[in-house]
Amino acid sequence: MTLTTNGSRTTVLTNIGTLVTNDPTLGEGKLGVRHDAAIVFDDGVVAWVGDSADAPAADIGQDIGGRALLPGFVESHSHLVFGGERAEEFAARMAGEKYAAGGIRNTIEATRSATDEQLQANVRRLLDESLRSGSTTVECKTGYGQNTESELRSALIAGQFTDEVTLLAAHVPPPEYAGRADDYVAMACDEMIPACAPHAKWIDVFCERGAFNREQAHAVLSAGVAAGLIPRVHGNQLGEGPGVQLAVEMGAASVDHVTYVTAEDIDALAQSSTVATLLPGADFSTRNKYPDARALLDAGVTVALGADCNPGTCYTTSLPFCIAIAVRDMHMTPAEAVWAATAGGARALQRTDVGTLSLGTRADAIALDAPSYLHLAYRPGVPLVREVWKNGALATSY
Ligand code: NIG
Ligand code: FE
Prior knowledge:
By secondary structure, this protein is α/β, with parallel strands linked by helices. About 35% of the residues lie in helices and about 20% in strands. A hairpin with a 2-residue loop joins strand 16 and strand 17. The radius of gyration is 21 Å and the shape is globular. Bound molecules: N-(iminomethyl)-L-glutamic acid (NIG) and fe (iii) ion. Fe (iii) ion binds next to loops.
């Protein structure tokens, strides 16, 4: 059989040792695993999945050499629009200091004083880096502007690279609102959110001691919803708090971090459609405890893994690194961790076109320099992502 449709170029990848589809109708288990498989990409989407021996001909053919092929990672949590960096703060933490949300203010200053070109270059550099470690969809937050002009600029720059733009309207009260978080929230609700909303898909808030309390976070999310945005929440990162319950109540797409939770929080998540997005890289780099992924999964909560690249708590773009932590230290199985970084991320972004390799989904895939997805956790720190396809074409940069 030869596939010819719409005059577009088709690609067939054959001799795939382990194919993860995340489609249980196409293979074994939740990951929909097939062995000795082949896949066809046509016009940017998956057009055929089957045994390598039955693979149809296509314009481009590539032998994967018995290696593993997976859906590209779906990175549902990143903060890439920022100026400067905070390596000294990291070093101080490793010497015993505690992470405090206030460090965000240093990045706010550096971001406000950066040029557009500097911010764009930073986003591009980090997106290229994340592509090389296998992320083919990346959400990107604002949050280091914290005034209307700078948040708008951040949203516009993020939107040059991704459709998944999150307006992190309330990250921490900026210096000019020190001790006046309520006034900041009023400004954000009345002015910033309406001005920025046309350039974003999501509204986010850091609901945590030292950032914004429940009422303030509720006001910010409500203003975002009124402006047409969908809520997501940073919550329960540094201690127990109202973030998880607020996210569930507001029907948020996800609540992110979820490191300190009560049994009631887990219960509420399990009965909701809100995804728990775990960010173990942040816990690693702040020497925090890790979230109790097992308790969440065993209760039936949908779990995603994100890398949370940002200059403060977690300066990594690597989801393979997070998968390794999730398996080693959070007791997720390799299959659960891979699902969480692919299909789970897609759930957190309410996307059905990415995170799976089933018929009609986007042809975003990664080939590992390994025979199985198990090696992502088994070989930590090794750059195993050998090739990346985005929309059916080999991709090396944004
Ligand atoms: O996801 N928690 C809040 N926001 C970031 C940290 C931001 C920073 O410290 O610059 C996070 O960890
Ligand atoms: Fe974050």
